[in-house]
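Hi all, posting the design record for the shared folder.

TITLE: backbone redesign
STEP: 1 of 1
STRUCTURE INPUT:
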């Protein structure tokens, strides 16, 4: 777990950026990254890490689709 502490710190920073910029017009962009970044923690799962990664990708894809819809005509 000591090896993962640095990664956890950086993942927390990503989450904090999103939380500190809730009024930003780029919130969906920030949410896409913030929701997807926990997929990097798949190495901490003993059982079925693929399912965990799939869930994180799905969460990021939700916000990514919002970005695509918003900028479709721009």
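Okay, here is what came back for every position:
SEQUENCE:
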């Amino acid at each position: 777990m000591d090896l993962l502490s640095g990664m956890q710190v950086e993942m927390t920073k990503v989450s904090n950026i999103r939380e500190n910029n809730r009024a930003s017009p780029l919130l969906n962009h920030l949410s896409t990254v913030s929701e997807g970044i926990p997929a990097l923690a798949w190495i901490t799962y003993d059982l079925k890490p693929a399912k965990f990664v799939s869930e994180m990708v799905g969460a990021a894809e939700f916000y990514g689709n919002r970005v695509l819809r918003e900028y479709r005509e721009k």
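COMMENT: The domain at 2-70 is CATH 1.25.40.330 (Serine Threonine Protein Phosphatase 5, Tetratricopeptide repeat).
Let me know if anyone wants the other runs.
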